[in-house]
Design a protein that fits this description.
Elements: H1 3-8, H2 12-20, E1 72-82, E2 87-98, E3 104-110, H3 121-125, H4 136-143, E4 153-158, E5 167-170, E6 173-182, E7 186-197, E8 209-213, E9 218-223, E10 229-230, E11 233-234, E12 238-239, E13 255-264, E14 268-271, E15 274-275, H5 278-281, H6 284-293, E16 301-304, H7 306-312, E17 320-330, E18 335-338, E19 342-350, E20 353-361, H8 368-387, E21 395-400, E22 405-408, E23 411-414, H9 426-441, H10 458-475, H11 489-492, H12 512-531, H13 534-548, H14 555-564, H15 571-579, E24 586-597, H16 602-610, E25 623-626, H17 642-645, H18 647-656, H19 659-664, E26 670-678, E27 686-692, E28 697-702, E29 713-720, E30 724-729, E31 744-745, H20 753-760
Parallel strand pairs: 1-13, 20-21, 21-23
Antiparallel strand pairs: 1-2, 2-7, 3-6, 3-10, 4-7, 5-6, 8-9, 9-18, 11-12, 13-17, 14-18, 15-17, 16-19, 19-20, 22-23, 24-25, 24-26, 26-29, 27-28, 27-30, 30-31
Helix pairs in contact: 8-9, 8-10, 9-10, 10-12, 12-13, 13-14
Length: 762
């Protein structure tokens, strides 16, 4: 606001201060008796009670502390994929490093395949009526007493001397009782042997398994959660041994892997890690194509052609071959194998590093996948790297798997296929691109920034979906994207008994998509667009990613880092958006126009009388008079240049401003008082657009702190040299305002998005 406006808008609180020096205080009455006291209920209260106390492991700034530690688990595994019988057979040597300051008497191991066992806990707790329909195999499993025989079958667990290690299986968790305490800063080694039946994930849904193709008799395997994996032990949870029930994903330890995978010799396979024996498992021609792809930075190179894949579909070799992979500093290992795979790859340059973008897909995915998959992987790696940190691994793989969308280090499964005639709908094309961006993006969250998925689904899904939204905006204009604030309205205005705060344990939420994906995305979008701004947000977000890459961040670490790196107090936002289910509903309650006068108003005269003062005792002042008040006179509107009519203002300007400065001052002709009301529980900035009589438009952002001392309504005086004909709140629909009917002045008869939806779908 310029100096002229500051000089004349002297508030009535100033008059009270003057009056206190000239007369007695008004007598107190009992009209507003003192009410019962209460705890601090201000929505700008700091989050000291909600966030964990900072300590030597995690600082108050959100960074790892000087005593931060994390465990490590290294695996040496040999596994066989039995394609004929759809089974996995494995043996592993696991080295567990106790980097904590705590002695450990036992270790916890995750047996996630046990979710498919006959006695699975998840089957007992999942309710609901009949499905829309059942595949015959599924119907038999559900209702005819022939359930799928899933889950790990443990052969043995031994130490290096061949002695049995005592273990106890508790559903999807297994406790290993160590023969002697594992001291801090030491390690232990054990061997484990197991097997399990691979599920058909189209019959019994799952994040891994196989798809069977009736037309040619082949299987396409997407294999994950396939080996007993060490649980996380840290300073936040101790052992994270919460049962795997299907929704809450995985909390895993970083480590190094040495894995040998034996498959039928006619299979094509990709996996986490660096392939050690490519010349042995590729044909000479395929190896030459691979070498060419490593230098192709503008387009993908076909490594295994569709013609070669179709020929292999008929072979069903009884011979085997072994694929050897090594991976360092990864939290998991997954692979995909089939004789149906087409394989292409393209190189991406990062300084002196080359990263390979790779796609594997059956012919059923073409031409869609050949055209879009690897190119999308490239775009994702480049977009996310700019926003966080350079992609740290040597490759990123996109696997086409029906009805799938799932992520693992360096590899992910993605849905979407062409029609039998090779055509595809636009919705299918954008769906394929979107899911590839999302699943490849998970390499950052949580594969490198390794949050606790079992507890906090939003920490990987929400942050990743937000980066996905921005990557899609960069890729194509008007790309269909979910997660904008306006997309949350129907959800946030729904049945409150079926809505949980974002800060809820992931298994306990009602709507995982909205709770873990879209609401966090919308929140981050609002932070970036109008609460923090691009520069502050981007720096803070990148700081968080870099602070916690290859580490285990907590929710508090994210909240604190975003504030620490930006200098913006966001506790009010975390509390409202993440810890409650409150909604935003800000409206325009009233608009009044004022004019300027130097004649004392009736209200000022009453005040003077109450304080025992005469008007001569008041200094010469200017007053804003409402057009609706008795003090208003029509001739006041003729004063288009107040400084010409008010000697007291002219004197002030001449004493305090040079002529050049006076020429630059804005002679406001119109003064408006706007009363903003907050009907929703959330505090939020007020984004206001003013439309003037000459057709021009101006936008203003009043920070959320405007509600700090009044949670119901606030009044703002707005001076203008042009007549305002329209006022709009949240014109771009980016504040998740649940009811826009009160967002206009003059009031418009508008309907909410949800009301329009209901009318259209009667």
């Amino acid at each position: 606001m310029n100096k002229f406006i500051v000089s004349i808008l002297i508030s009535f609180s100033t008059l009270f201060a003057i009056a206190q020096n000239h007369g007695k205080q008004p007598e107190k009455t009992d009209e507003n008796p003192v009410k019962e006291g209460h705890y601090n209920i201000n929505k700008f209260k700091q989050l000291h009670e909600e966030l964990a106390t900072p300590n030597a492991y995690r600082t108050a700034s959100g960074a790892p502390g000087y005593a931060y530690y994390q465990q490590k688990a290294d695996y040496k595994i040999e596994v066989t994929l039995d394609d004929k019988n759809q089974k996995i057979f494995g043996e592993a040597t696991v080295t567990y490093h106790n980097n904590s300051p705590d002695p450990l008497d036992y270790l916890w191991v995750q047996l996630d395949q046990n979710i498919r066992s006959k006695e699975s806990m998840s089957k007992k707790i999942n309710g609901g009526g009949p499905s829309v329909g059942y595949r015959p195999q599924k119907f038999v499993q559900e209702f005819m007493g022939k359930p799928f025989d899933g889950g790990f079958k443990i052969g043995y667990i031994k130490d290096l001397n061949g002695n049995d290690i005592k273990y106890t299986v508790n559903n999807t968790m297994m406790r290993l009782d160590l023969p002697e305490t594992l001291a801090p800063k030491s390690s232990t080694v054990f061997k484990i042997k197991w097997w399990y039946n691979i599920n058909n994930y189209l019959v019994a849904r799952g994040r891994s398994g196989y798809e069977h193709f009736d037309e040619d008799g082949n299987n396409l395997y997407i294999i994950a959660q396939w080996f007993p994996r060490m649980a996380v032990y840290n300073d936040v949870e101790g052992w994270q041994n919460k049962q795997y029930l299907g929704r809450g994903e995985f909390t895993l330890v970083f480590g190094d892997y040495d894995v040998r995978i034996t498959t039928p010799s006619d299979h094509v396979l990709e996996a986490t890690g660096v392939l050690q024996n490519r010349k042995e498992v590729f044909t000479k021609e395929q190896f030459k194509r691979w070498e060419k792809a490593q230098k192709s930075f503008d387009k993908p190179v076909i490594i295994v052609t569709q013609k070669e894949a179709e020929a292999k579909e008929k072979s069903f070799s009884s011979q085997t071959k072994t694929w050897h992979f090594k991976a360092e500093k990864v939290r998991d290992f997954a692979f995909s194998s089939s004789r149906k795979f087409i394989y292409d790859a393209q190189a991406i340059k990062f300084g002196n590093r080359t990263v390979m973008a790779i796609s594997l897909y059956p012919k059923e995915g073409n031409p869609l996948w050949e055209e879009f998959s690897t190119k999308t992987v490239v775009h994702t790696i480049e977009s996310y790297s700019r926003r966080t940190f350079d992609y740290p691994y040597h490759k990123a793989i996109s696997i086409n798997a029906k009805q799938q969308g799932m992520e693992y280090p360096m590899i992910c499964w993605n849905y979407g296929r062409s029609r039998p005639d090779g055509t595809y709908a636009e919705r299918t094309r954008t769906g394929v691109i979107g899911v590839i961006i999302h699943e490849v993006g998970h390499n950052w969250f949580p594969m490198v920034v390794n949050s606790d998925e079992r507890q906090w689904g939003w920490m990987d899904e929400g942050l990743n979906t937000f980066c996905q939204l921005l990557a899609q905006e960069e890729l194509e204009k008007d790309f269909p994207t979910r997660g904008y604030p306006k997309d949350l309205i129907e959800y946030m205005t729904g049945d409150q008994s079926k809505i949980a705060p974002i800060m809820s344990q992931h298994e306990a939420v009602f709507n995982s998509g909205k709770n873990a994906y879209h609401k966090p995305t919308a929140g981050l979008y609002m932070l970036r667009e109008f609460i923090m701004g691009h520069e502050l947000f981007d720096h803070a977000f990148k700081t968080y990613a870099n602070r916690w890459k290859f580490k285990h961040p907590s929710t508090a670490d994210f909240f604190r880092t975003m504030e620490d790196a930006s200098g913006v107090d966001l506790d009010w936002f975390w509390r409202g958006w993440f810890y409650t289910t409150d909604v935003n509903d800000i409206g325009i309650k009233e608009v009044k126009q004022f004019v300027v006068t130097d004649k004392p108003t009736a209200r000022v005269k009453r005040m003077a009388k109450a304080y025992g003062m005469t008007m001569e005792q008041f200094p010469k002042m200017l007053y804003l008079v409402s057009k609706e008040s008795d003090d208003f006179k029509p001739e006041m509107l003729d004063k288009t240049d107040p400084s010409k009519d008010f000697e007291i203002l002219k004197d002030y300007l001449e004493k305090n401003f040079t002529k050049e400065e006076q020429a630059q001052l804005k002679n406001s002709t119109y003064f408006y008082e706007i009363v903003f009301e907050k009907k929703g529980g959330l505090v939020m900035p007020i984004l206001v657009d003013f439309v003037y009589a000459d057709g021009t438009r101006e936008s203003f952002n009043y920070p959320a702190e405007i509600w700090m001392r009044n949670d119901d309504e606030v009044r703002k005086v707005f001076p203008s040299d042009k007549e305002i004909v329209e006022i709009i709140i949240d014109a771009k629909l980016i504040t998740a305002d649940v009811d826009t009917r009160n967002n206009h002045w003059p009031k418009k008869e508008t309907k909410t998005k949800f009301e329009k939806f209901k009318e259209t779908n009667k």
